[in-house]
Amino acid sequence: MTDMFVSLGNWNWLIFGFILMALEVLAPGVFLFWLGLAALLVGLVSFGLVVSWQIQLVMFAIFAAAAVPVWRRLARPKSDAGASPFLNKRTEALLGREFTLEKPIIDGSGTVRIGDTVWRVAGPDTPAGTRVKVVRVDGANLTVAAA
Fold it and tell me: Are strands 131-138 and 98-106 parallel, antiparallel or unpaired?
């Protein structure tokens, strides 16, 4: 077993790195890519410096361990919170907006059309066609006041 490690030269590390990267293509998950990159780095360092096989293995371990935080940083999805902060909170996006009543509010209940959806609204009795402002949301029910 030690003969294999003793014979590890820069070409063996480069071949090992390319094999790991090729396996990444067959089984994508981006993990083998970073191990392959670590092996390539060890091979490149071995071209410039004469180091023992023990140091080569330590360098591979260090490069592979350093690749994990780099991978996590690059793989982290970019936050688009500023672009669409209400993506999964559709009703909260309606707070403060004004709409025209489709059906009058009678006995505290009426409807308003928002886009292609009819929403149930609650509020003081108001005739149809009146502009109202959404002041509170509760699930799919909107509470409105005169705008």
Answer: antiparallel
